[in-house]
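Q: Convert this sequence to structure tokens.
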Amino acid sequence: MSKQGSASQVAQELLTGWLAARSIARGLPLPVPDHGGLRVDTGSAEEVRRYVFAGPAPEIRALALSITAPRVFIKMCGHGEQLLDLVPPGWELQPAGYLMTHDGSRDVQHALPAEYRLELVTESFTRVARIFAADGNLAASGYAVEYGGVFIFDRIVTEDAHQRRGLGRAVMAALGSTQCSDAARRLLVATDAGRALYSTLGWSVLSPFSTVVIR
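A:
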């Protein structure tokens, strides 16, 4: 498999597992089949719903033609140009994302600087890692869910004032230590900047992950 991957290499079952686990991590409804892909009714101020496809599919065009309201996103495993070719004028490509996977060691630990404290808890089905600074403020955090044969990492964030101190690595290691099944596939979706960081931690790109929304 190439470093960049391709949409045809993303199995529907893998995408379904990731999207379901992501919904659990964010307290959203589970995805349901719709227009040949999957729909999640997110219902937030920024996003009414999203449709997610494992790769280029002719159903995307019919779906896009049926959407007239803003804040409805179409997402697809594949390059942005492929997705733009499937939608009519008026749709705008969003910054690139990347579906990434990790097949390496699951028990690498990263020591925290002495002035930080790690808290690892389980909230319903979601594992939550939080790192607090000496003043009690939140310095870094992240979420993980194991579900449907996958183990996903979600919303890994280090606050600006605490970056470049290994806190993101510590969050990832803490969350990874909670994985129960060695057979579960590790997945996350990264931004372009995140891709560079996760690549240094042994993650590889399974597929570009593209998004369009009505202007």
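Residues 102-202 form a domain with the Aminopeptidase fold (CATH 3.40.630.30).
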